[in-house]
Design goal:
By secondary structure, the chain is an alpha+beta fold. It contains 10 helices and 13 strands.
């Protein structure tokens, strides 16, 4: 299954210890500059799975017969699970798969940043490469018409439709008269406000035919309006979580770039003023982490051996941002910097 990446999920995976069997962790680099075609991704699947087969054979002396058989089956399941033509949908730039047949584990994590392709075998999932994903913003995508409303929650890794909320706000059989439409859109907005309280989200995206989306925006509670990040065009009647994710991905990416740029500008300003609120380079950042002063850890996606820094940042609830488009700004600092709390 595919689900949003979050610290809670990674903690659960990190704490996972099967009673029987070993865990196979496989990482696929889907960087579109290198793996932008189905043919390239098919080659990537073959390469990673062949690497897994070789690793299993190299370690067969330390594996029981049952563990050996289960790992081979896990590799075959990975080979059979992905369509190279669709593997990079939704803007995924990397993929992690954790498999352990005896424990009924097969979990897929979609990543918004490239990751080095590799395979490990262990007593638990290898999640350290994923800690750099940080905490995702939670998004709500609401599709509205004069009679219907459908709501999706998730992030850039995946979306889910909330059937209970959709049932509550689904069409009332009203005509398209202005008063009836306004009443319906107000009901949708009220339901969203209730959702915000029950399952908080950070950003809101709306979509609907003109002028319904503008009317809907006008009736949003201020708490919702301040979270509005953009509009999408999706066929409401045919929408699926996958199609909603595809349509909303440009909004997600624009927000991500904006957020990364703002954090980088803050870092530059603090370093320029030398006010003690910025740290650059591994040694200075490590010192700041040990003092629990880090507010935002900034990393070049290609920086090596940063897992310990990321783990410390996560442990103290610091934000972790992996910069790709703007990574050259971090290169003079070894790909590592931080904005500090004090």
């Amino acid at each position: 299954m595919a689900a949003p990446t979050a610290h809670g999920r990674l903690r659960r995976l990190a704490d996972f210890r099967p009673d029987h069997g070993r865990v196979l962790s496989a990482f696929f680099d889907l960087d579109p500059t290198q793996f932008g075609t189905g043919e390239a991704r098919a080659s990537q699947i073959t390469s990673v799975c062949d690497q897994a087969d070789r690793l299993i054979e190299q370690r067969r002396s330390e594996l029981s017969h049952d563990e050996l058989v289960a790992l081979r089956e896990d590799v075959q399941r990975i080979r059979d699970s992905f369509n190279p033509q669709r593997m990079g949908e939704g803007g995924a730039r990397g993929l992690a798969v954790f498999a352990c047949g005896p424990a009924d584990l097969f979990e897929v994590v979609r990543l918004a940043y490239p990751i080095a392709s590799r395979v490990t075998i262990g007593d638990s999932p290898e999640v350290s490469p994923l800690l750099a994903a940080g905490e995702r913003e939670r998004w709500c995508v609401t599709l509205v018409s004069s009679r219907e409303g459908r709501v999706f929650l998730g992030n850039e890794d995946g979306m889910e439709e909330l059937d209970d909320l959709r049932d509550e706000i689904h069409g009332r059989g009203e005509d398209s008269a202005s008063a009836d439409r306004h009443h319906h859109l107000t009901r949708v907005a009220d339901a969203l406000l209730g959702l915000l309280r029950a399952r908080p989200f950070d950003r809101l995206v709306i979509g609907g035919p003109d002028p319904v989306d503008d009317e809907f925006e006008a009736v949003l509670h201020p708490y919702l309006a301040e979270r509005l990040a953009g509009h999408v065009s999706v066929d409401l009647s045919a929408a699926t979580p996958a199609s909603v994710l595809e349509a909303a991905t440009p909004v997600f990416e624009a927000r991500r770039r904006e957020h990364q740029h703002a954090a980088l500008e803050r870092l530059k300003a603090h370093l320029g003023r030398n006010d003690g609120r910025g740290a650059a380079g591994r040694d200075d950042v490590r010192d700041a982490l040990e003092q629990r002063r880090v507010e935002t850890l900034l990393l070049d996606a290609r920086a090596d051996a940063v897992e310990d820094l990321v783990e410390q940042a996560v442990d103290q609830s610091a934000e972790v941002l992996v910069l790709d488009d703007e990574a050259p700004d971090l290169q003079p600092h070894g790909g590592v910097a931080a904005v500090l709390r004090f």
